Amino acid sequence: MIDQSLRCRISDAVTQALRPLPTVFAGWEGGSAAFGAVDAYSDIDLDYLVADHASLDDLYACAERALEAVSPITASHTPLKGRYYKLKDGGDFLLVDLIFFRAGDPDCHLDIERHGERVPLFDKGTWLRPRPLDERALAVQRNRRYRELQTWFPMSQVFVRKAILRGQHVEAVNAFWACTLKPLADLLRMRYCPARWDFGVRYLDRDLPPLVYDQVRDLALVSDLGDLEVKLARATAWGATLLRELESA
Fold first, then answer.
1. 107/126 Cα distance (integer angstroms)
2. Mean pLDDT score, 43-64
3. Do residues 198 and 139 touch, judged by C-beta distance below 8 A?
4. β-sheet bridge partners, residue 83
5. Predicted pLDDT at 130
């Protein structure tokens, strides 16, 4: 069951704290909400556009005070972009994913093709107008990855094979994910969802045709080294086919 009341209180509290600040230009909810896919396990993704000179530490401190007024923060994590917060009243699954984008950032997650239809919280101007996807830059990045995989995908399968032959179960599964399944997901996205070619397995169930997703799912669920050896052969052949198809596309 979705705790919509808590989600709204979190969003309202953070927005009311940040909106009056002159360095904060706009706010929106992204993530699952931008794709109309919020469920009982969804994070709440709060995104704000701020001035290039704004102090992010000050902004996070302001947002954290607002969150504490809703529910005590029991844990936080700072990845490369943004911060995650776990709240006492949020249960096991509701994390707050808070990101500040500078107005001059090249990618503020405002293009619909990659990040969905954002849910506006406020806009002090026309900051939230959809930004066109830079198809050319995306194509350059996608093609660079494709050219890399033309050589590396066939070569790297040896790491999985060696681990299987050595009877190294953990190493074999890890190599299968790193060298086989993740590159295969890139190739499948290039084939079926090129705008999000670099999203890995995130949203994969939405971006691939159901029968194709089912094939990936079956490859991912490995029972033992014998099963892995069979699935490695299938995945390697599939990857080779995709490389040929994409070359002629």
1. 17
2. 97
3. no
4. 98
5. 83
What residues have CB less than 8 Å from 18, skipping those under 6 apart? 24, 27, 48, 59, 62, 63, 66
Q: Quote the DSSP letter at residue 21.
A: S
Structure tokens at 64: 């954290």
Phi-psi region for residue 192, left (φ > 0), alpha (ψ -120 to 50) or beta?
A: alpha
Residue 35: CB atoms within 10 A of its CB come to: 13
User: In the structure encoding, which two tokens stand for residue 221, read together?
Assistant: 């669920």
Tens-digit pLDDT profile for residues 172-186: 999 999 999 999 999
Distance from C-alpha of 123 to C-alpha of 103, rounded to nearest angstrom: 13
CB neighbours of residue 195 within 10 Å: 17
Q: H-helix or E-strand containing 235?
A: helix 225-248
Three-state secondary structure string covering 136-182: HHHHHHHHHHHHHHHHHHHHHHHHHHHHHHCCCHHHHHHHHHHHHHH
The answer to whether residues 174 and 213 touch, using CB atoms and an 8 Å cutoff, is: no
Nearest-angstrom CA–CA distance, 154 and 7: 46
Angle at 134 between CA 130 and CA 136, to 5 degrees: 160
Buried b (16+ CB within 10 A) or exposed e, 204-229: beebbeeeebebbeebbebeebeebe
Please give the single-letter amino acid code of residue 87: L
Structure tokens at 82: 């943004």
pLDDT per position as a tens digit, 196-245: 999 999 999 999 999 999 999 999 999 999 999 999 999 999 999 999 99
Beta strand pairing status for 119-123 and 24-30?
antiparallel
**Tokens representing residue 87 in the block:** 């709240």
Instruction: Write down the pTM of the prediction.
Output: 0.90
